[in-house]
Amino acid sequence: MQHILGDDWIIESAGGSTGEAYYAQSKHKRLFLKRNSSPFLAVLSAQGIVPKLVWTKRMENGDVITAQEWLDGNELNPEVLQHPKVAELLGRIHHSAELLDMLTRIGKKPLQPAALVKDLRRDYQTLANEKLSLLVIERALEYMETHLHIVEGIKPVVCHCDLNHNNWMITDRGELYLIDWDNAEIADPAIDLSLLFKRYIPREDWDKWLAFYGEVNDEELTVRMYWYMFYELLTSLNHIQTVTEQTEKLEELQEILNQAMKKRDIAK
């Protein structure tokens, strides 16, 4: 990395799970560098969703290095995700034909709900063999299977799929960005909305938040969001290492199941 920029640059690891991101600084400029970013980054930059892409260089070994503006700012506090600017940016992302076209051209295929729930059923057999608390898992899977017809046939969009508050960045100039697109998928937008609503948006604020996003909350959308809440929780159970974490996830699953069932009863 040093030989690309020259000896007058100081390069430091930016951390992260991949170890492929770096901060670079000289007397006159600061950059955020990443190795083997997706070509998707160029479209995200052009639409102002991530900090500006400055240059891209291909190494002799085939690696591609991208350089973006290094901006002063902070990740969003969890409560700030309720702000209309967050809803408006996510709505712009989900409605972008250019983002969808680029992600399709680099080989992404839309997630298929039937395949997702089938895979969960298969994983559920492993969980059953481990004698976990299975009633809540079975009821969540039944909900997903019963409502599969509602989540199928939804027009897919580009989804970030990792909308934790630390992936939202607000600069000192008040610019909002959504970073770290390594997990992006083409899917039902409810997959993003479900994560935001489960973790950050109070139930009484869903309608107001969705209005800024550009959507009206109805029974079908609510079902889709609960469907993907179950998907995320059931998937995460396979990666939990401790009994304490398992218990917490199962309790969260039960709580959301209660909410989904209560909503269904009210609608009848």
What does this protein look like?
- By secondary structure, this protein is an alpha+beta fold.
- Helix content is about 45%, strand content about 15%.
- It has two domains: about 1-70, Phosphorylase Kinase, domain 1, CATH 3.30.200; about 80-265, Aminoglycoside 3'-phosphotransferase, Chain: A, domain 2.
- It has helices at about 1-5, 40-45, 85-95, 95-105, 115-130, 135-145, 150, 190-200, 205-215, 220-235, 245-265; strands at about 10-15, 20-25, 30-35, 55-60, 65-70, 75, 155-160, 170, 175-180, 185.
- The strands form three sheets. The chain has a five-stranded antiparallel sheet, with helices on one face.
- The radius of gyration is 21 Å and the shape is globular.
- The model has no long low-confidence stretch (mean pLDDT about 90).
- GO terms for molecular function: kinase activity.
- This is Thiamine kinase-like enzyme.
- Keywords: Kinase, Transferase.
